[in-house]
Amino acid sequence: MERFQNGKMMRIFVDEHDRHGVEPLYTAVVEMLRKRGVAGATVLRGIEGFGAHNRIHVAKPFSAAPNSPVLIEVVDEEERLRALLPELETMIGEGLISLENIAYLPLRRA
Which of 3, 18, 76, 85 has the smallest number of Cβ neighbours within 10 A? Predict the structure, then answer.
C-alpha cells in the first residue's frame, strides 16, 4: 500500500544578514509560515554560495561579519504554497524561490 503523498517542496534562498524589520528574514519567514498553517519548514545555513550579484557568501568562523547563505525548505500541498507566494515575495525582496515535486510520508507520534 502506497502511503506517500504527493506534494511540493518550496526552497527559499536568502542570506544570513537579510532582515525583515529588526529580526532575521529567515525567522520572520518561518513564523509567517507557521501562522499560515504550513505543514513544515526548516532553516539550513550553507557553507558557501553565491546569487544574483555574483558575490561569494561564505561561513568563515573568524570573519568579522560572516554572511552565510540560508536555505528555508518548506513542504506542503502545491495550492497552499502557491497562495503564499505574493506575501513571500513582499517579505523577501531579493533572493530565489524554487518549487519542486516531492512524495512525502508524514510521521507522527500518537
Answer: 3
* CATH T-level fold of 5-104: Alpha-Beta Plaits (3.30.70)
pLDDT value for 65 = 63
Which pTM does this prediction carry?
A: 0.85
Any idea of the CA torsion for 85, 87, 91, 97, to the nearest 10 degrees? 0
CA pair distance 34, 3, nearest whole angstrom: 25
- Range list of H helices, the chain: 25-35, 78-92
Angstrom distance (rounded) from CA 61 to CA 34: 31
Domain positions in the chain: 5-104
* Residues of the chain with confidence (pLDDT) below 70: 1, 57-66
**What pLDDT is stored for residue 63 in this prediction?**
63
